[in-house]
Amino acid sequence: MRKKGFCILVFLTACGLCGCLNGRNAGERTKTMGAEVEIETDVFAVKNEAETGETRENSAQFGPSEETEQSPSEKTLPVEAEQSPSEKALPAEAEQSPSEEALPAETEQPPSEKTEQPEETGQPGSEESLAEETQTISPAEMTETADLSDYFGEIRGCAVWYSPAENRYVFYNEEMCRQEVSPYSTFKIVSALSGLKNGVLEDADSVMRYSGTVYPVPEWNRDLTLKEAVQSSCIWYFRQVIDAVGRETLEKELTLLEYGNCDLSDWEGSGINPLPELNGFWLGSSLKISPLEQTQVLKRIFEGESIYGEEETAVLKELLRVSDDGGRQIYGKTGSGSGEAWFVGFCEENGGRAYFAVYLNDSTQSGAMTGAAAKEIAMEWLTADRTGA
Question: pLDDT tens digits for 322-343?
């Protein structure tokens, strides 16, 4: 009996010890699991915070980058601004979609996600982005200032010289060179090209018929050829050409050429002259362009970067010839309005070509603001200084 009681006591004691041990182990496991869950939750929180922070950082960065590649659907095209093309900053990294994790800089994406980009440019590689960047000037652009006050004297004005081969600009009164104003008769450069391209004109001998109206310029009072109309800057001749080309066609051409503000909204003109055939959007009206833009437009035309072909530009070039001293040839077109005057064109020498624009705007000397005055200043400057500076 005593032996049986002793066995029962040992059995109960062993059960109690196992229960205690099991309870302690269960508690420890519960605590351990809780710690694991808590730690894992913290890892996700840190990871999500890191990913969110990285995305915010990426979306705030701008400037060229060769490290992050984007798919075409994620690219944000740079917005076009009036700043110099060389000053535009391109978005280097677009914001990633929530399902994507940022890859390390040196990690390649899977082949299905990779998008080739132009090497060493930092620009998006799509056709749309390349079209948007047609105005871009190379970062190597050189900008200089010249003192041309001896040529301008007391006349308020500005001048710009542009050498594409050197990617070099020389400015006199740079701020004024960047202001858009009416092109006046310098627009006849584009009018002639558009007439030739669209079959309104065939060559320099193409004739427009005189209406019989007596105009204040004797040279305008007869039938004129294209060459004669350019030489006398005949407004009615080019009014006929422009009307024959048509507004819709011309708007498309100016947009492709990036001609100033491309605004033809005042197609009939502002009434600056008393007769309707002596008015138009290019005469003190809606269309505007800066002296700097004039040089860039001329460069596109004569460097083969526009919709106008070699035949059209060859005809125009001969019409614009002003001088040839055997070493340097100068080509240009005048224009003038109330207190404003232009002379724009280009020089050729030793196989090179540079573009220029001289613009005068001085209401205190409105009588002296003529195309001839602008041309005289330009010719003195260009023949005295063969570098533009």
Answer: 999 888 999 999 999 989 999 9
User: Which sequence spans correspond to the domains of the chain?
Assistant: 145-384
Total-model pTM: 0.65
Residue 282 is classified by DSSP as T
For residue 145, the SS3 value is strand
Tally of residues, the chain: 389
Dist. CA 259–CA 180, nearest whole Å: 11
d(C-alpha 264, C-alpha 267), whole Å: 5
> Among 314, 295, 294, which Cα is nearest to 304's?
314
Q: Is 337 helix (H, G, I), strand (E, B) or coil?
A: strand
Q: What is the largest CA-CA distance in the chain?
A: 151
Q: What is the 8-class DSSP label of residue 114? A: -
C-alpha 327 chain-centroid distance: 34
381, pLDDT greater than 60: yes
Residue type, 202: E
Rounded CA separation 174/156 (Å): 13
Q: Which fold has domain 145-384?
A: Beta-lactamase (3.40.710)
157: amino acid identity, one letter: G
Supply the pLDDT for residue 22. 45
- Provide φ and ψ at 328, rounded to 5°: -130, 135
> Which of 74-78, 228-232, 311-315 has the least mean pLDDT?
74-78
